């Protein structure tokens, strides 16, 4: 009898397990992720998906402590800053050059942008399932803005790139594609931004959602890239006349929390929020002020006019102490080049530093938004476009002078009677000092066609006059990453010269 | 369950198995009748079937039946000889008509050993598949805490690479017959412990009874979808029936040092001059002023201006201790083995330690005439320490500290650099002393219960249920530690040990498995059959949880609650997979001469979609014992000769847990001041995903000659893996993560040879020498678009991940030479690397990269030898791996990476005066374009090696003396591991798992062990 009992006990699991087929012993699903099958069914899914699109703005930048829109690292590619840790890859770009195998921004802007574009294309293909009417138009407009935004980056950096607009989940993933010309890409950018402008609310930028002015501002940048001066001037005028934005009387307040939240000048930014959404790897104050990942060049310091307060609002100088906002105390209480990662011959960065931050180091917390577009930029873009289109008229003067006359900058107006060429130099000067460490310089130099002139043979540190940077004309079109060339053979050709 | 085709197939299979059994049952034959009968047994009175019994006078021979019985025609005075492979022949003279009783003594041969194979055991003589075996005794000649490391060189066909000597984290890679796949499913073999999947590395090596490697499809097919990478079958100790009770205690003390460390420039002034030279060469500002150099050059105060060698602070002579206590025995119906082990190993690098506690319990008891129950349980607790960023980081950080300063002043201040203008990494001595050391606790238990029922004679019902449980946790605290500059003791910020604060985590894994099978074994005259059929079900559930806090008020408390809640984080998840299987196996032999085998397995896995989740795997094999044929009957030199062949298909499904299910990524964003939840789909899936399959052909030969003194085994294989589960190649512009798909094929062909000779000279001296060699070739047969990585290529027709490099061709000696040479990838200056123009177009670009050999070893070999004389025993093991190369760069091999010290080799660098042709001019390896912008053979180093893996001398005290003290056996020994290594690899140990890595990594250990083993 006993044996029989044992036999029953032994057979039981078999019986149970076989009969449990129905309940799906082998049917296992992820426990922490939603299935795509349940998505795009409720109206609220549109909000979740739209938020998801903005999340791509946090994409990593291909290196430590640098996300894609840690924009000050762009200045390491230029004559404005020296990147002692090669944040973003700018230092190696200026010494070893840019190749199809380069990492940092050279790879990440390409790969990240297309990941965001894929999500956007999928959004545009599906959002109509759950939204209708004005809400649909507005949600789509935000997606169009973001697509235009990413294609603008691609056009600006690589020039000729593939264009993809369809739902990526419907594309055969084995397919290959060639590239479109820079002009075609820019045309796509304009078209997306036009759709965005038509559908976005005409209101100030407050929450982080793109508004009409945001899309207009990016279109303005695109038009400048295309040198469509008259059209650009008109669009800039429209933004200015729209009156939704104004200069922040406090220049520095554009660069730290909580002042950024109330700045009427910011038109687009990547938003962070303590305690949950922090900068990649370390606080910005550690990246910038403690480790000095970007250091200003003497050449940039020399650019400031005497008495321009933006110089001391952007950089620290020898002997600075707490009175000047220097964040370190104790033995480091007096700013001293040569100490604590401050390389002699360069200048430590003050911009982006949250006042009151003391001794930032590992573990420090901050949540500055990366400001990608400011109203001051729109005003200077107007001046540039108008000056190119019709010359230095009163409107040009007015916009430049207003930027200079911001209350806490308070620089005198430009002298009257400047020639078009002189005005061009004045505007370029103004952009350089106004936007130092905001990542615009490198793109401006390439846009103006003077990158080789300025960056090839440039001496970043005057203490070492023999050490010079390199820049080649071919960098006007960055190389497409080699992986992409390999995977799209034979359709995709590398940009010339690589 | 619906009446699915799968179920029908299953039924058919079961029917097949059963009908096979029946067919064999009735296929009997008769035995002849003569007048003298007898029986042949071994010393344990177990019958020896198939023994030859010869009347030496008439030369007539018969064979024993399955009870060892025979009858033979003979007259009084005739000499009758009994012989069987593996035993020493015995002769008896017939005296009247009483039955003859032969008791054969075993010869020194492996043929009799019982080999543990899938769900069964088999005598080696009957094997038709490729199985290599090593005994626990043989393994434990070396003393190591991780048994996986002991397998190296022991089992032909198994490639064992030990990545480092780090206690508890040796990183042993096990590879059976080459890299079979490039999928995420991996190449790790399935580990079976006491019949069920388990873990090898958790075991105490002393608890291992035997290890078998199932190499071909015939042996592994019964493991179906988990057998594609081969199977390693481990049997733990269980005691022997009727062996009484004995207690065994082993102790050993090992003294360890790194096998090799680099020779660095530690003269501070020389270092600074070289640094400045390198920086100027690299277009960088020199770091050191002449004043600083002169201070160190002319100093008399070597405390203030030291020439400090950091390697002496970080590397040490370390000890490892092992205690092992085993109690084993057996009564009539029950045998058991209980053991407990403790190992305490310090790392040869500061900050590393592991304490490993093991318990093993093995029991088998025949509780009634028909029922046997048993259990095997192993438990392991490991407490491991490792500095915050691991061995490689410790090593590279150490050599990135300049010789200008010690780790700490006499007053106890931690030093970051000598001067603020210096480069460097972090103070590794401070990391350890300030306890930026992670604690890893790992609790592991694996065990099973078995119940075997003898239903009728030969038919057995076997059941086994097991459970593996693993819980591990880590506690990773990063203290806030002030550092200083050595020159003026001004503050230099806090120690670079990551974000200060605490990270803790727990992970657990539960694996349950159950099988039930019927086994039938029957000897019917000349026919021997065995068959089994069973059902198995496996489930695995894993979960983890991690949490962190930052900004602790103190360095002394490393618990979450000791830190502030602001900025705290947590995360966690769980996952599960399951497999359900039906399997069967049949073996048949005729007259011990013709052997056949077949296995089948039908597996369903949760990892694959419903419609394609079931896979059928099977194998067929055959053997022919030629030595039994009449034409070899008189070849007295030949004891045994068998050829065998097998063919079969195996599966692999061990890819991510949910590879076919499309899910949404959590992607939140801040709007205003609140974080909003968002989702996006970003990964493609293939809803028709199915099995990766490996097809193996194996041909082998087993031979025993010269009166069982020489044994020889050879195997040739052709292993073809197709429908490889891989990430598809998707273009970047698609913007989605690649799906896992079935695509690609890979072939490995190779051979294994093993030979051993053993002999006894005189009465007291016995010796043996053995060796094995294995080699394979790897070829990617189907891949898709050629994919070029940083320094490797995946292209059809070439080995998988073959090196694909620019070819380094010397050093540019002059500007004139540069001007005459093809345009280099980076404009060089004299003293830079010269690269070969492969396609001869005058410009060196990506088209000049080319295939470069050395990705896989050409062959690996081992030589084992030993001897014993009276109480002394001696053994030695040599292991070699030939032909592999490693691509290494960074700290140590390249100068001034993060300010790291150059090796003394760089004193012979190229300079305008010293026209070296082997070393370029010195540079700063923080992206120096002329050397570092492209992957060239300059970085590829020959990593072939031959090493004296172990040599051991032991002495067993005479039993006559010991028995007076109540001791059955007492042996003392001294053993040395990694005694010497012959290699061209520069500076460091050549053995490592990665073919492309930073040059420095946690070193291997050279160990001298003193030990004793006593048995009561």
From TrEMBL, chain A:
Main location class: membrane
Keyword check for Membrane: yes
Keyword DNA-binding: no
Cell location: Cell outer membrane
Domain SusD-like N-terminal: 106-209
Recorded superkingdom: Bacteria
Keywords: Cell outer membrane, Membrane, Signal
Pfam families registered for this protein in UniProt: SusD-like_3 (PF14322), SusD_RagB (PF07980)
GO cellular component terms, A-Z: cell outer membrane
CDD domains named among the record's database cross-references: SusD
InterPro entries: SusD-like_N (IPR033985), SusD_RagB_dom (IPR012944), TPR-like_helical_dom_sf (IPR011990)
Family assignment from sequence similarity: Belongs to the SusD family.
Protein name (record): RagB/SusD family nutrient uptake outer membrane protein
From TrEMBL, chain B:
Membrane topology: Multi-pass membrane protein
Signal peptide as annotated in the record: 1-32
Family: Belongs to the TonB-dependent receptor family.
Keyword Aminoacyl-tRNA synthetase attributed: no
Superkingdom, taxonomy of origin: Bacteria
UniProt-recorded name of the protein: TonB-dependent receptor
PROSITE patterns: TONB_DEPENDENT_REC_3
Pfam families membership: CarbopepD_reg_2 (PF13715), Plug (PF07715)
One cellular-component annotation, GO: cell outer membrane
Ranges where the TonB-dependent receptor plug domain occurs: 124-231
Key words, A-Z: Cell outer membrane, Membrane, Receptor, Signal, Transmembrane, Transmembrane beta strand, Transport
Cellular location(s): Cell outer membrane
Keyword Transcription regulation: no
Organism of derivation: Ilyomonas limi
């Amino acid at each position: 009898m006993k044996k029989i009992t044992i036999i029953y006990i032994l057979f039981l699991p078999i019986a149970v397990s076989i009969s449990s087929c129905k309940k799906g012993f082998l049917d296992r699903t992820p426990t922490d992720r939603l299935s795509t099958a349940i998505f795009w069914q409720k109206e609220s899914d549109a909000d979740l998906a739209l938020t998801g699109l903005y999340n791509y703005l946090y994409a990593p930048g291909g290196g430590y402590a640098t996300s894609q829109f840690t924009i000050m690292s762009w200045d390491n590619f230029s004559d404005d800053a020296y990147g002692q840790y090669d944040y973003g890859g700018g230092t190696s770009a200026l010494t070893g050059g840019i190749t199809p195998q380069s990492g940092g921004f050279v790879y990440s802007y390409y790969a990240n942008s297309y990941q965001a574009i894929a999500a956007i294309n999928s959004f545009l293909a599906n959002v109509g399932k759950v939204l209708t009417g004005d809400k649909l138009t507005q949600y789509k407009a935000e997606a169009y803005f973001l697509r235009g935004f990413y294609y603008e980056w691609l056009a600006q950096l690589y020039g000729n790139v593939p264009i993809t607009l369809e739902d990526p989940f419907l594309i055969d993933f084995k397919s290959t594609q060639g590239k479109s010309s820079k002009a075609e890409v820019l045309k796509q950018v304009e078209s997306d931004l036009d759709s965005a402008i038509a559908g976005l609310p005409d209101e100030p930028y407050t929450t982080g959602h793109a508004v009409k002015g945001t899309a207009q501002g990016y279109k303005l940048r695109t038009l400048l890239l295309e040198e469509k001066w008259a059209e650009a001037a008109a669009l800039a005028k429209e933004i200015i006349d729209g009156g939704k934005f104004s200069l922040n009387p406090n220049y520095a307040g554009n660069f730290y929390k909580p002042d950024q939240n109330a700045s009427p000048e910011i038109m687009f930014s990547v938003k962070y929020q303590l305690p949950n959404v922090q900068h990649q790897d370390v606080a910005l104050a550690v990246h910038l002020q403690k480790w000095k990942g970007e250091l200003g060049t003497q050449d940039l310091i020399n650019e400031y006019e005497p008495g321009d307060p933006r110089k001391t609002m952007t950089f620290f100088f020898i002997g600075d102490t707490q009175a000047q906002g220097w964040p370190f105390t104790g033995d480091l209480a007096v700013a001293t080049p040569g100490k604590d990662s401050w390389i002699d011959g360069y200048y430590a960065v003050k911009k982006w530093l949250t006042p009151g931050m003391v001794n930032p180091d590992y573990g420090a917390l901050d949540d500055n938004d990366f400001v990608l577009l400011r109203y001051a930029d729109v005003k200077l873009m107007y001046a540039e476009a108008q000056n190119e289109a019709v010359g230095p008229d009163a409107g040009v003067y007015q916009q430049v002078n207003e930027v200079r006359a911001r209350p806490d900058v308070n620089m005198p107006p430009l002298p009257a009677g400047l020639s078009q060429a002189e005005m061009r130099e004045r505007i370029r000067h103004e952009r350089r000092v106004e936007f130092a460490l905001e990542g615009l310089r490198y793109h401006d130099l390439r846009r103006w066609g003077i990158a080789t002139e300025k960056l090839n043979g440039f001496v970043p540190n005057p203490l070492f006059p023999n050490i010079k940077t390199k820049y080649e004309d071919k960098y006007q079109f960055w190389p497409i990453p080699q992986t992409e060339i390999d995977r799209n053979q034979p359709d995709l050709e590398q940009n010339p010269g690589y | 369950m619906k009446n699915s085709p799968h179920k029908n197939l299953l039924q058919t299979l079961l029917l097949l198995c059963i009908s096979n059994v029946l067919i064999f049952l009735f296929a009997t034959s008769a035995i002849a009748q003569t007048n003298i009968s007898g029986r042949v047994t071994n010393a344990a009175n177990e019958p020896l079937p198939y023994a030859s019994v010869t009347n030496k006078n008439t030369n007539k021979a018969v064979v024993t039946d399955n009870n060892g019985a025979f009858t033979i025609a003979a007259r009084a005075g005739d000499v009758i000889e009994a012989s069987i492979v593996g035993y020493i022949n015995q002769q008896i003279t017939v005296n009247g008509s009483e039955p003859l009783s032969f008791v054969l003594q075993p010869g020194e041969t492996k043929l009799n050993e019982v080999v543990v194979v899938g769900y069964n055991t088999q005598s080696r003589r009957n094997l038709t598949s490729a199985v290599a075996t090593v005994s626990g005794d043989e393994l434990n000649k070396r003393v190591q805490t991780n048994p996986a490391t002991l397998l190296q060189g022991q089992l032909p066909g198994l490639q064992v690479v030990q990545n480092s000597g780090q206690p508890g984290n040796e990183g042993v890679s096990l590879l059976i017959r080459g890299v079979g796949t490039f999928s995420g499913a991996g190449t790790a073999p399935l580990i079976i412990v006491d019949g069920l999947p388990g873990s090898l590395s958790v075991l105490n090596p002393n608890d291992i009874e035997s290890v078998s490697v199932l190499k071909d499809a015939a042996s592994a097919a019964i493991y179906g979808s988990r057998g594609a990478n081969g199977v390693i079958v481990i049997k733990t100790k269980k005691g022997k029936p009727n062996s009484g009770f004995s207690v065994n205690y082993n102790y050993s003390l090992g003294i360890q040092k790194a096998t090799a460390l680099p020779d660095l420039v530690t003269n501070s002034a020389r270092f600074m001059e070289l640094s400045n030279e390198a920086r100027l060469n690299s277009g960088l500002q020199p770091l050191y002023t002449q004043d600083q150099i002169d201070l160190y050059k002319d100093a008399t105060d070597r405390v203030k201006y030291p020439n400090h060698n950091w390697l002496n602070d970080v590397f040490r002579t370390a000890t490892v201790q092992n205690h092992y206590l085993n109690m084993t025995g057996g009564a009539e119906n029950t045998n058991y083995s209980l053991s407990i082990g403790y190992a305490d190993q310090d790392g040869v690098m500061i900050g590393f330690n592991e304490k490993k506690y093991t318990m093993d319990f093995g029991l088998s008891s025949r509780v009634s005439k028909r029922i046997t129950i048993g259990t095997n349980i192993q438990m392991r607790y490991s407490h491991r320490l490792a500095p915050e960023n691991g061995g490689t980081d410790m090593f590279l950080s150490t050599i990135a500290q300049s010789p200008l300063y010690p780790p700490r002043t006499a007053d106890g201040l931690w030093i970051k650099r000598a001067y603020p203008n210096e480069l460097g990494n972090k103070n590794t001595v401070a990391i350890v002393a300030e306890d930026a050391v992670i604690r890893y606790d790992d609790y592991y238990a694996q065990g099973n219960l078995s119940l075997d029922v003898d239903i009728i004679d030969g038919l057995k019902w076997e059941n086994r249920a097991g459970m593996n449980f693993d819980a591990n946790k880590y506690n990773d605290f990063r203290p806030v530690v002030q550092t200083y500059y050595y020159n003026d003791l001004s503050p230099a910020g806090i120690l670079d040990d990551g974000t200060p604060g605490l990270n803790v985590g727990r992970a657990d894994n539960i694996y349950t498995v159950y099988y039930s099978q019927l086994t039938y074994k029957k000897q019917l005259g000349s026919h021997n059959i065995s068959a089994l059929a069973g059902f198995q079900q496996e489930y695995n559930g894993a979960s983890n949880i991690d949490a962190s806090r930052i900004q602790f008020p103190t360095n002394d408390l490393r618990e979450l609650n000791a830190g502030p809640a602001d900025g705290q984080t947590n995360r966690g998840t769980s996952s599960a997979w399951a497999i359900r299987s039906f399997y069967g196996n049949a073996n048949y032999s005729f007259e011990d001469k013709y052997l056949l085998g077949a296995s089948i397995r039908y597996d369903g896995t949760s990892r694959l979609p419903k419609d394609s989740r079931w896979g059928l795997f099977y194998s067929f094999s055959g053997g022919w014992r030629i030595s039994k044929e009449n034409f070899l009957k008189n070849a007295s030199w030949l004891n045994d000769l068998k050829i065998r062949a097998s063919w079969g298909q195996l599966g692999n499904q061990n890819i991510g847990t949910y590879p076919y299910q499309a899910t949404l990524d959590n992607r939140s964003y801040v709007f205003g001041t609140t974080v909003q939840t968002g989702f996006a789909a970003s990964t493609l899936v293939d809803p028709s995903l199915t099995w990766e399959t490996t097809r193996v052909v194996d041909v082998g030969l087993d031979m025993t000659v010269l009166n069982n003194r020489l044994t020889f085994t050879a195997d040739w294989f052709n292993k073809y893996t197709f429908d490889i589960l891989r990430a598809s190649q998707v273009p970047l512009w698609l913007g989605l993560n690649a799906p896992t798909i079935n695509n690609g094929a890979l072939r490995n062909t190779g051979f294994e040879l093993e030979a051993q000779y053993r002999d006894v000279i005189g009465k007291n001296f016995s010796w043996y020498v053995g060796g094995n060699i294995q080699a394979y070739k790897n070829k990617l047969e189907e891949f898709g678009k050629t994919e070029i990585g940083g320094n490797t290529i995946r292209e059809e027709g070439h080995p998988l991940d073959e090196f694909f490099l620019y070819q380094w061709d010397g050093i540019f000696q002059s500007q004139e030479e540069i001007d005459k040479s093809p345009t280099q990838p980076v404009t060089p200056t004299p003293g830079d690397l010269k690269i070969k123009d492969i396609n001869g177009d005058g410009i060196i670009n990506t088209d000049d990269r080319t295939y470069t050999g050395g990705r896989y070893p050409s062959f690996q070999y081992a030589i084992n030898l030993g001897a014993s004389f009276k109480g002394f025993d001696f053994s030695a093991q040599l292991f070699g791996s030939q032909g592999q190369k490693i691509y290494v760069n960074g700290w140590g091999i390249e100068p001034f990476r993060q300010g790291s010290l150059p090796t003394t080799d760089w004193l012979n660098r190229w300079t305008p005066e010293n026209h070296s042709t082997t070393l370029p001019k010195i540079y700063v390896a923080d992206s120096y374009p002329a050397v570092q912008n492209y992957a060239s053979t300059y970085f590829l180093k020959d990593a072939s090696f031959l090493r004296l893996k172990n040599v051991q001398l032991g002495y067993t005290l005479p039993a006559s003396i010991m028995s007076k003290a109540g001791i059955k056996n007492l042996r003392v020994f001294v053993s040395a591991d990694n005694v010497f290594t012959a290699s061209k690899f520069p500076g460091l140990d050549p053995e490592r798992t990665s073919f492309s890595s930073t040059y420095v990594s946690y070193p291997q250990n050279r160990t001298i062990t003193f030990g004793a083993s006593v048995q009561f």
